[in-house]
Each structure stands twice: as structure tokens, then as C-alpha cells.
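thread: overnight batch results

M.L. [08:02]
morning all. the overnight job finished for the chain we discussed friday. pasting input first so we're all looking at the same thing
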Amino acid sequence: MHPNIVLGKIQKSLLLDRPTVTSIWQLAQSAEVDPAGTCTRAQLAAFLEGLILHYRGPKPERPTSAAPAVDPALVPDPINNNDILRKIRIALELHEVATYEIFAQGGIALGKHELSDMARKKGHKNYKECSDKQITAFLDGLFLTPPGR
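M.L. [08:03]
and the structure it wrote out:
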């Protein structure tokens, strides 16, 4: 799925206004994407890292006075649908039950093993790629049942 579409769906689903999006880009320490421009997969990965920091705050071992930096070397490139799903689940602290419900709201019923297979590392014998249809259903379901609404 194109990173611009994912970014737009995340903003819409989480009701992120312009100042919030700007602060997320600042947390990611990445140049903000021009609305008329194209978002790269690396920029999407950085935004998702910033989203995690926005919702969960910095890691405890980091000083709270300094803004946490997202090391570009640690951001997987290219980011795939499994990474997008994983990072949104981390940012929103979504457990399995909530994730199943979000997928169901988006029109896809996942089995327990399907979700756990998507959460595995690439190369694991039970790893399953999250399809564009599945990530779209998740993002649509997130819009229908966003946390805090």
C-alpha cells in the first residue's frame, strides 16, 4: 500500500489535527511530508516511530528533558505492512482482543494464528505477510473504533 494512503488513513483514524501531526514529525526528527508531496517508506517508518513516542513517551532510560531522537539506522527500510501493523499496535497499546475487533470492524475476521503469524519476524517458519487488503481493513476498522472515542 502506498505510504501516502497509510499516512492519511492513520491521521483520519486517530483524529490527528495539523499541530499534532507536526509534533509527531518533530518527535520523529524527520522532515515533515508536504501534503502535496510523496511520502517515502522511510518517512512513513519515521512517522510511525514518532507516533509511538507521541502516545507512549520516551523510553525510561532516556533523559526526559531531551527530545528523543529516532536513529535512521534503526528504522527498517523498506517498511512493510507487518511493520505498519506492529508499530500502530505498539503506539496504541493494542492487545490481541482489541486488534481482532478492529479487523472485524474493517470487515476481516482473523483467526488467532493469523494475527500471531503476522507478528512474527520475517524468516520465521510461520511468518505471514500482511496483505494490502488486511492492512486496509485494519486502518478502516481503526477509524470505526478508534481508541479513546
